[in-house]
Structures are given as structure tokens and as C-alpha cells.
Design a protein that fits this description.
With 121 residues, this protein is mostly beta strands. It contains no helices and twelve strands. A six-stranded antiparallel β-sheet has the order 3-4-5-12-7-10, with no helix packed on it. A two-stranded antiparallel ribbon has the order 1-2. Strand 3 and strand 4 form a beta hairpin.
């Protein structure tokens, strides 16, 4: 989701292993940041090409704003159900948003998603 709400500079307190070509982090050790009550994001290591994130939605929550994409965004639903308009995306669903797209995800039962935002270079 957009990289602005609830984010400060890279805030990973997790143990991170980095080499010239690879970064490894245990996701549950990355500091969670509350976006709004009931929605928590963990910002995963990023490169100059893309940024990763993990978002947990509590039951009955909705992303606070319409998320408009200047670049491509992809996410994978790990658990629960993400509702996008009239579409329902359950575990195992992979969603890709093209540049210029917009959405406002919500959930009734809660959800966990992991995603990648391609950065504008």
C-alpha cells in the first residue's frame, strides 16, 4: 500500500542479514507500525527497485484512503479475506495493480497480506 501513511524512515528492529546481493529478515521481528486502529504494517527491506510490506487487517477494517498507484503494486493474501469493491480475495490470491490504478481494501473477517510496490526509478 502507499508508502506514506504510518511510516517513518526505515524502521526495522529485526535482526537483518545483508550481503551485496541478498537481504534476509524474519518478518515477525520487523517493527509493526499502526496505520489506523486495526491495521498494522511491517515495512520489509527495500531496494532501489521495490519495497516490500506485510499488512494485518483486523476484522471490520478498511484502508483509510483510496490507494492510488503511480507504479505497480502486487500483493498475496496469506490468510483471511480482502474485499476490493465487489471482489473477495481469499488465501492464495495474488493481485496485481497497474500504474494508474486505485483501490481501497477492506475486510470483514480480518486478513494478512504480503506485497511489493515497484518503485519509480
Amino acid at each position: 500500500m502507499s508508502e506514506t501513511r504510518g511510516m517513518t524512515a526505515t524502521t526495522a528492529t529485526a535482526t537483518t542479514a545483508t550481503t551485496a546481493l541478498k537481504t534476509t529478515v524474519r518478518v515477525e521481528e520487523v517493527e509493526p507500525v499502526e496505520v489506523v486502529p486495526g491495521i498494522v504494517r511491517r515495512r520489509l527491506p527495500r531496494t532501489e527497485y521495490a519495497g516490500g510490506w506485510l499488512i494485518d487487517f483486523a476484522p471490520g477494517t478498511e484502508w483509510p484512503d483510496v490507494d492510488v498507484h503511480a507504479t505497480e503494486e502486487r500483493y498475496y493474501v496469506l490468510s483471511g479475506e480482502v474485499i476490493e469493491g465487489e471482489e473477495r480475495h481469499g488465501p492464495g490470491t495474488y493481485v496485481v495493480y497497474a500504474p494508474g490504478s486505485r483501490h481501497r481494501p477492506r475486510t470483514e473477517i480480518g486478513a494478512r497480506m504480503i506485497g511489493i510496490t515497484v518503485l519509480d526509478r
